[in-house]
Design goal:
single chain; alpha/beta; N-terminal domain of TfIIb; Rossmann fold; Dimethylsulfoxide Reductase, domain 2; 6-stranded mixed barrel; 24 helices; about 30% helix; globular; binds iron/sulfur cluster
């Protein structure tokens, strides 16, 4: 018999409602209800077809212990573990298949040993934003309370940490201010650094809809021509690393032409005058500066139009990793907020700010306190821990000896992989909870196969703060992530007395009362199709900052940060050009992050089985081979197939990062956002090495 079960898509931060048709405990089809609140009845290709991973024969359906780990630790193990390890059955040359109870006992013993020998700071945990709030919450609790270490972080470190930083510093809340449907209420949409049709397609549908129906004007700003640009009134192509320059130039025009909202500034904000004076004195803020940048002169004409229209209309700004993954990512976010504050485009229907979060639960994982400087509900933790790049350094310095990873592929998605590989070798214990043998799972000592999002109950929070209580589409006997944590904890202390994900959630409601206090499972079940936007008290909150901001005194704060001349802009400005190539990376529609799940669907894999390097058609004479490798001082990629396109400016390159075999993240280094250490993925000067056919690499 076929059952229809409602839940939420496991992929991107849009968080579409889905319905699965299930027969004999197998998903037959996934679709969206025509009145789906988020989906609007449509799913992208990942949401619709990307469910084969659930039944894949590649799934980890057991616990595994590396043979080498047993050999190294055998002598020091308690007798009982020694005796049990002698009965382990080999899975292959590298791994033993382990009984779950044994694997949790082994993990608990080694964690306790490391804590005793090296101290509490020797533990670090990295949470993935693919896991539920309940699991994220318990991971930070395990780290802070069980291991007594402050070192907890999550994969927002490589995506939207600058959005949280920039928004928290100015308006006190690092989250989207409005619901997606405000796209139908707004008059002007500024999309910057977001390839929305590829990364957040169901939000892009709304933008295209509004632009086509002319209810809102669309302006798209990116370093290349993207699909969404076809629907834009203005498509501004920016030099790499020039977001802050561009945003300050928009502010300059608004200030110079007195287009700002005096009344909003007077009643809702502080520090406007010093901000205004700084921008007007900034040598780079005048849009005329762009006339000095060969190939980008038209921005000097586009910026005044964008500024005037943004200020005059009810406007929204959307951004993605094109903003955050830069040296000044946090500052660019502050520059975005400044625009909203000076024009009063915030705290209203159809006017606001929307950082388009990447994974299905980035917002929730941050809300749960999986950050080194925030506890649940953004409380101040007793002690601030290390951000992931600092934790990597601490591993190299032999200060961190044990690491726990929950649903994040730090050995693929993070930059400077040669360095990360060396750091991981210094660990005495690496535990990973995963669905597949990802790069980090392969390097682990103990691996726990866990339930996927389609096999469990849990809360996910999408990019518009919408809580969705997922329910299992199919059953399996694997543990949930939080159960693994509980079972290890129970062998160390015995404080985690949770028997269900609802038990964990009840604790979340106690420790994160502002956002989640009123969001019981019962209420979330009742609102399963629509979801609820936090903060949830008696009712939910579709829009934030209606009357005051979430800063301590309720005012919005202007923050000025001047652009620092560098990179491609500097070369264009000072030398009139350059002979280098600049690379940017990003997602494509077909795959999701490390592609661990999407690659299991043949339909998706066939469409994109390798990362392709896009280059400008104008550079055909400079790149003569079909494949090239990219090189920097940090490392080298494997051969990448080159595709010449018209949508990229000369001497700039684009590549996706989904396939580990391309080794694209081996060439990125430690350069990162000044405030958050989010890696500079969006501009990298690279050397091109031609690969001749039959050449061995
Ligand atoms: S847009 Fe995102 S949430 Fe919606 S179906 Fe696609 S991947 Fe899933």
């Amino acid at each position: 018999m076929i059952h229809d079960i409602a839940s939420v898509c496991t992929y991107c931060g849009v968080g579409c409602d889905i319905t699965a048709q299930v027969e004999d405990n197998k998903i037959q089809k996934i679709y969206a209800q025509s009145d789906g609140y988020v989906s609007q009845g449509k799913l992208c290709i990942k949401g619709k077809y990307g469910f084969d991973f659930v039944d894949s024969d590649q799934r980890i359906r057991d616990a595994r212990v590396k043979k080498e780990f047993i050999d190294k630790n055998f002598e020091s193990m308690p007798r009982e573990l020694q005796a049990r390890s002698k009965t382990l059955v080999a899975l292959d040359d590298t791994w033993y298949k382990a009984n779950y109870e044994f694997a949790t006992s082994l993990a608990a013993w080694k964690l306790a040993t490391i804590k005793e020998e090296y101290g509490r700071y020797s533990f670090y945990a990295s949470g993935g934003a693919r896991t539920s709030c309940e699991s994220g919450f318990l991971l930070q609790k395990f780290t802070r309370e069980t291991m007594e270490s402050p070192n907890i972080d999550n994969c927002a470190r490589v995506c939207h940490a600058p959005s949280l930083n920039g928004m928290a510093a100015t308006i006190g809340e690092g989250a989207a201010t409005n619901p997606y449907d405000d796209i139908y209420e707004t008059e002007f949409m500024l999309v910057i650094g977001s390839n929305t049709t590829e990364a957040h397609p169901i939000v892009a549908n709304r933008m295209i809809d509004a632009a086509r129906k002319k209810t809102a004007e669309l302006v798209v700003c990116d370093v290349r021509n993207i699909q969404l640009g076809k629907f834009a009134k203005v498509e501004a192509v920016l030099p790499y690393e020039s977001n802050l320059l561009f945003l300050n130039a928009i502010a300059y025009v608004i200030l110079k032409e007195y287009l700002y909202d005096d009344s909003f500034i007077d009643t809702r904000t502080k520090e406007f005058e010093s901000y205004r004076d700084s921008i007007l004195d900034d040598p780079y803020a005048n849009p005329e500066f762009f006339r000095s940048l060969n190939g980008y002169e038209q921005l000097a004409d586009q910026i005044p139009y964008i500024a005037r229209t943004y200020a005059a209309k009810k406007s929204m700004i959307f951004w993605g990793l094109g903003i955050t993954e830069n040296l000044d990512g946090s500052y660019a976010v502050m520059a975005i907020v400044n625009l909203a504050l000076m024009t009063g485009n915030i705290g209203k229907v159809g006017a606001g700010l929307m950082p388009l979060r990447g994974q299905n639960n980035v917002q929730g994982t941050c809300d749960m306190g999986c950050l080194p400087y925030y506890g649940p509900d953004y409380s101040k933790p007793k002690e601030e821990g290390l951000k992931t790049p600092d934790a990597i350094d601490a591993m190299l310095e032999d200060k961190i000896k044990a690491m726990m990873v929950m649903g994040e592929d730090i050995a693929h998605i993070h930059p400077n992989q040669n360095k990360i590989n060396k750091a991981l070798e210094n660990l005495e214990l690496l535990i990973t909870q995963e669905l597949f043998m990802t790069q980090i799972a392969k390097k682990s000592d103990i691996v726990f196969g866990v339930k996927s999002a389609y096999e469990k109950t849990g809360v996910y929070v999408n990019a518009m703060r919408r809580l969705h209580l997922s329910q299992p589409l199919v059953e399996n006997n694997l543990p949930d992530d939080w159960e693994v944590l509980r079972d290890i904890e129970n062998k160390l202390k015995g404080d985690f007395l949770f028997n269900s994900s609802e038990d964990v959630w009840e604790q979340v409601r106690v420790e994160a009362p502002y956002r989640y206090g009123g969001a019981s499972y019962k209420k979330l079940e009742k609102h399963r199709s629509k979801g609820m936007q936090w903060p949830v008290a008696k009712v939910d909150t579709p829009r934030l900052h209606l009357e005051s901001f979430r800063t301590p005194d309720g005012y919005g704060y202007f923050k000025y940060n001047g652009y620092q001349l560098r990179g491609q802009v500097k070369m264009l400005h000072e030398d009139g050009g350059y002979d280098k190539f600049f690379l940017t990376t990003g997602r494509i529609l077909i795959h999701y992050n490390n592609a661990a799940q999407t690659i299991q669907t043949p339909k998706l894999k066939e469409k994109h089985s390798e990362d392709i390097l896009l280059a400008s058609i104008e550079d055909k004479d400079k790149i003569k081979t079909k494949q090239v490798m990219l090189k920097t001082k940090y490392g080298q990629t494997n051969p990448l197939t080159v595709k010449f396109v018209k949508t990229i400016k000369t001497q700039t390159l684009f590549c996706s990062f989904h396939h580990a075999k391309s080794k694209i993240n081996y060439i990125f280094g430690d350069e990162s956002d000044l405030n958050t250490k989010t890696a500079l993925f969006k501009s990298l000067e690279v050397e091109i090495i031609e690969v001749n056919e039959n050449q061995e690499c």
